[in-house]
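Exercise 7. Given the components listed, write out the predicted structure of the assembled complex. Treat all entries as one system.
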Amino acid sequence: MPSPKPRTSNLEPHLYPVIMAGGSGTRFWPLSRHLFPKQLLRIIGDETLIQQTMRRVVHEAPAERVMISTNPAQAESIRIQLGEWKDALKDNFVLEPEGRNTAPAIALVALELIRRDPEAVMLVVPADHIVKGQQDFNAAVELASRLAMEGYLVTFGIKPIRPETGYGYIRPNKKMTILKEGKLKGHPVSRFVEKPNAAKAAQYVKAKDFYWNSGMFVWRAATVLEEIGRHQPKLSQGIERIRELMRAGASRSAIDEEYRTLTPVSIDTGVMEKSSKAAVVPVCFQWSDVGSWGSLDEVAPKDKAGNVVGGRVVDLGSQRSIVYGDRRVVATIGLMDMVVVDTPDATLVCPKSRAQDVKRIVEILKQQGAPEHLEHLTVHRPWGSYTVLEEGDGYKVKRVTVKPGGRLSLQMHHRRSEHWVVITGTARVTRGDEVFDLQVGQSTAIPVETRHRLENPGRDMLHIIEVQNGPYLGEDDIVRFQDDYGRGAEAPRSLKVPKC
Amino acid sequence: MPSPKPRTSNLEPHLYPVIMAGGSGTRFWPLSRHLFPKQLLRIIGDETLIQQTMRRVVHEAPAERVMISTNPAQAESIRIQLGEWKDALKDNFVLEPEGRNTAPAIALVALELIRRDPEAVMLVVPADHIVKGQQDFNAAVELASRLAMEGYLVTFGIKPIRPETGYGYIRPNKKMTILKEGKLKGHPVSRFVEKPNAAKAAQYVKAKDFYWNSGMFVWRAATVLEEIGRHQPKLSQGIERIRELMRAGASRSAIDEEYRTLTPVSIDTGVMEKSSKAAVVPVCFQWSDVGSWGSLDEVAPKDKAGNVVGGRVVDLGSQRSIVYGDRRVVATIGLMDMVVVDTPDATLVCPKSRAQDVKRIVEILKQQGAPEHLEHLTVHRPWGSYTVLEEGDGYKVKRVTVKPGGRLSLQMHHRRSEHWVVITGTARVTRGDEVFDLQVGQSTAIPVETRHRLENPGRDMLHIIEVQNGPYLGEDDIVRFQDDYGRGAEAPRSLKVPKC
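Answer.
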């Protein structure tokens, strides 16, 4: 995605972008999964949504000041995708041990920021929205920051282009302008309306004095904590206990335990709608929360017939449809306003108008214990990735890709043996006390309970086929002796996530 | 499929069922492929269409008298599917070296039958139609056989249930009844109409004196050859040359060469419509040629909402739709009159009304040289089957299944090495001069240019994962030294078909 260089002057020195990256990934299923939510997808352009978001906010502050709010299950994937800013972001991940909606998540980041800089101003942005128009975004952030310094909770108002019932609407008090810069103005909020019915929504669009709540906010960390204290006193008490624990240098697990006791509440309904300090800056950059497959139309390039098409698609006369394929052939004939999404292990077909119901499909799969709601057949790791080619009774076949210089942990399995055949590159294998290299077409067997490690000592990618045999083939049958990426058995992780 | 035992009395001693099994398999893509046409599919019930057809006609004559008309590319798959009648059918395959439509194919079988029995009566049935009502079918065949003995070319007329424009229509001359048995009557044909327009078709359905041409025929082999001679003299001359070659004991390749010179012509338009000997027996058994995905409705069981569903389908509120999946999840929401067919390497989505256009998709894939028009990732062999799990630059991964007692040919590859890992069962491996057994979790490597063989000496199925490495991985890089299934390098095959 071509993008101008981040500005280096005029930056508000206390501004800290906060990327909210805890999405659950149900509405873009089957491309998104519980462990691979929308923010990690390359939906339009060459970069994923979180990469685009990061590139957007480093125009507002240096990467060292960008905070990532997420959960342990997604942190690793995010670190991989934001590898370009690896060093800058090293200590900037704030992990929710369990989802408690946005207010507690924001409070947790605010506590950390106040510890670093009592004057901190937060620019809160979801990781999975699309914004077009960097300069307009910059200008809006600048004005909002000034409003924030004056004690306002600022949101960006988006001009509504359809009677969407899934969003919140904001009415500014246009009689009062708090601040003005060129065409941009900041107003107090006179009214919030969350998810209106269709008739109301149509009325708001027509009235032209309502704006969509973009879910992006600017405020002082201190202000938002005060306002949480005022409108969510119970939550605030929990936050204060966490602040005490932090001050006392308590362990991560003690803080996590306290966090889990918090009641979930969203910052919009729990704080913004109640606060007298709410302000809105109507903005003119292009914005989409790409909330479902049906909304891709707003942002993705279309062919002459209005179709958004990707992958190996063979189509005869479809119109206004979204067809996403991958390596498999997807043949479509005469579709009208349909969505077809084909992934290696799951396919979705529905009219655009029903795309919101995909979350019900994900719910059903979750109830069935079907792995297709949880993750993809291809799983990314710091050292590369693996793809499950087939899984059956007592065996699993994977293609494992290791980046140049990458290596898996030194590990052992109690219940499975493995065979490795090199298909591209050179593999350095540790097996028991031996260390040896394998070239293309060579293979080795790793018996059960044997320490082993796979490493790519070359300059090209290494690809191997791994055949696992054993009565139990779960990713959690792993004893890790050494790991280059700090993924030890003792590492504090709040969610059990398979690793290898 | 529950089916009464074949009758053993009342059989016409000169009746020879002829199963026409040379379909090209485009209209049921992606479930059917060029090398795996509709007749080989399990579309409804537990048996494939050709298995159901075979089970139907062994009510009319012993299996030893059933002839199979097909082509070399499909013969092996058919032999595998008709394995229950393997010995009876051993010498009953009549292979067209190249498709020349139905008249030449039928003539070729007629020549062979006259050689065996000058009084032969042929019951010609397509391998891929569905018939329900065995007793009604028996009665119709019996009456038609008697008509055939009197020199008629008999077809079965099906009562039309919709104004189908893809079929031929027959008008019997109901004023004349040639033969009668209970409610069944045989009439001369007064008129044939091939593929009428929609208005005509609607008129014929309303008129109630037109019948669909079922494409099933009964006639004396001698009669049909005479009538071909009368109405297709040029074709007939070619047939006579083939008869001479057969009499002179010419080689298979000489006969094939002559056959290739024949002009393609269908038995319906080339002979039946022109002959004064055409007769029709209006029948009352249920019939469908399941000509496209859209026609499955007529024969397949439906749920309450009118959907025909198979595989791992998760649906929300679809109606009158056809959703065929396999091992992958197929999620459908609110589909109306749609077809969704999901296979391991290709997916089809279209409205039922456009299902006929699937053949255009197949044509496009063929032009692209895409393998998805030709065969499935799973390919059946006499010894078992293999499934391609992944194919990439310089490597291919297969799961190979060998039946108990089955073994692949003793073979060698010039350009690829192979690794085998046993995942179920016991493998007996020949590698160079060694012969050894491998158990689950054991593996071996087969270097290039090394004679090898894989065999299942056990009582359970053998499954191995094979990883191939090499610059060329085509199935035709094979030197075969010995084969249990008569598949030598020198075997006369008119079509190049990959084997292993």
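Discussion: Residues 489-499 of chain B have pLDDT under 50 and may be disordered. Chain B touches chain A through 56 residues (CB under 8 Å).
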